[in-house]
Amino acid sequence: METYKIFGPPGTGKTTFLLDVVENEIEETETTRIGYFAFTRKASQEARDRAMQRFPGLSDKELPWFRTLHSTAYRSLQLSSKEMMKHSDYQEFASRHGLSIQTETEEDWVVRTDHPILNQINLARIRGVDLWTHYNQSRINLPWHHVDYLDKNYTALSKVRICTTLQTCSNWCFLSPTVCHASKC
Fold this sequence. Notes:
By secondary structure, the chain is mainly α. The chain is 45% helix and 8% strand.
């Protein structure tokens, strides 16, 4: 299996080149096993539409892995955007705890917040270290009890948000801050 990473500005032939690769793969591989991953929904839909035009007879169902990177991850985990924390969830959390939180969304879910403590909590999870270790290694200029308090409440909110909508959550442990933060909900 080969991995291709194609970079370039719009109109330089990235999609055409990759569809040529797909055409070669279709000869040897089922279309349901071919992945085409894009950063935006628009780009993945454009590639899917062009593939269906180029290969008459193919349908959406035969190209299930023509998706965004986030969509691929959520589909693999059998999650949907309704199970992810939304901007309104972060605003409710901010209101309860007297914070100001701005969020950046992609498609239907929050991908980033601007709050320094939430960012440190997320960095610790991404690094795979406990928050106390991360706190001591970082240059965060906030008292530990503030960080610990927000971490416990943020984790509780994430558990409630997911465990009320995801029935199979009991044995899962995800690293994403917008999913479940515990090994058991």
